Structure formats: structure tokens, C-alpha cells
Amino acid sequence: MSQNTFYKIALPYAEALIDLAQSSNSFDKTSKDLSIISKTITESNDLKVFLSNPLTNISSKKQVINQLFSNEVNDFILKFLLVLVDRRRISLLNIIIEKYFDLAYKMESTILTEVSTAIQFTELQQDALIDKIKLMTNGENVKLITRVDSSLIGGFIVKIGSKVIDTSLSGKLKQMAFYLDTN
Fold first, then answer.
1. Are residues 5 and 94 in the same domain?
2. What are 21-57's pLDDT values in tens digits?
3. Within this chain, do residues 124 and 52 fall inside the same structural domain, yes or no?
């Protein structure tokens, strides 16, 4: 199956999760819970492989999910995870969570911004960048997803949707090399 097909399958689950979170007035708690789950699965390759393996017994998957998350997340999130196991969709969990946050950010009018930096930004630098992005986009809320990439040498790259702003030193060097090659 293509990646697009996975996104189509994941979307109704993400929409159902948004509806559940809104109806139970636990939107913020749901988002935090999903962040915890996503982080746990991302950090443990063994867990990811275990949950994605179609040959693994469903009851074993449920037992592991209960042990990991029963004291960490809301009951309806735990039940949601168990439904995903029953329907053999647990392997799509990260995509479902990604879709959930896409929908949540749209609902909250949050502008999702990816920032790659040569070194970690300070809190002050992040706040200044958020203010600039708010001005550029006329947005109220900005969510920064930061990533440190030492190959940038210095500066940073900002991605807002399909727009890319490259102020990195490596980007400037590539630009200079391109102009020197064309002459």
C-alpha cells in the first residue's frame, strides 16, 4: 500500500479521536496523551516492531499497551488503542496521531512550522522567531517543531507549509556555488 492509502485509512480514526476529545472536554489532555504515546513508540524501535507485526497475538499487544499506558493516559485513549489493536490498525498509530495533530492545529488556527538549526535555539530566540512568523502569516498561534542539523554550519531553515526560508550558511554556500557554476 502507498503512503497516501495509509493516510486515507488513518484520517477517519483521527477525526473520531478529535470528536471524542471535544465531546469529553479533554482536548488538551488528549493531545498530551497522544504526544506521550508517540514519543514512547518513536523512542522504542522494539515496541514499534512488536505492535506492527501482524503475526503477534492480539491479546499480547493489548497486554503490552495496558502495561505501558494504563496509568499514563486517559481511559478513552487507552480504549481507542485497544480498538486499533482489534481492528488491526495499531501499525498506523503514528500516522493517526500525525493526522490528529494536523486536524487539531487547523481547528486552533495553529501554523505548523518546522525549523532546522545548526545549534539549539534558546527560549528567547524561539519566542522571537514565533513573533516574526505570526507577523509574516497573520496567524494567532504558531507551533515550532525544531530539529538540530549541524550540517547547516550556521543559521537556520524555516518551513511553513510549502514555503522555505533558508538563512543557513550551507544554503548560502550552495547558492554561491550555483551562481559560480552557471557563469
1. yes
2. 888 888 889 999 999 999 999 899 999 999 999 999 9
3. no
Q: Is the pTM of this model over 0.70?
A: no
Please report the sign of the dihedral spanned by the C-alpha atoms of residue 95, residue 41, residue 17, residue 161.
negative
73 close to 33: Cβ distance less than 8 angstroms: yes
| Last residue in a domain, options 79, 105, 131 | 105
Cβ atoms of 118 and 154 within 8 Å: the answer is: yes
* Whole-number pLDDT of residue 131: 92
The answer to whether residues 116 and 149 touch, using CB atoms and an 8 Å cutoff, is: yes
- Same domain? For 113 and 176 the reply is yes
Predicted confidence (pLDDT) at residue 103 exceeds the cutoff of 80: yes
By residue range, what is the domain housing residue 78? 1-105
Do 30 and 66 sit in the same domain of this protein? yes
Same domain, 100 and 118: no
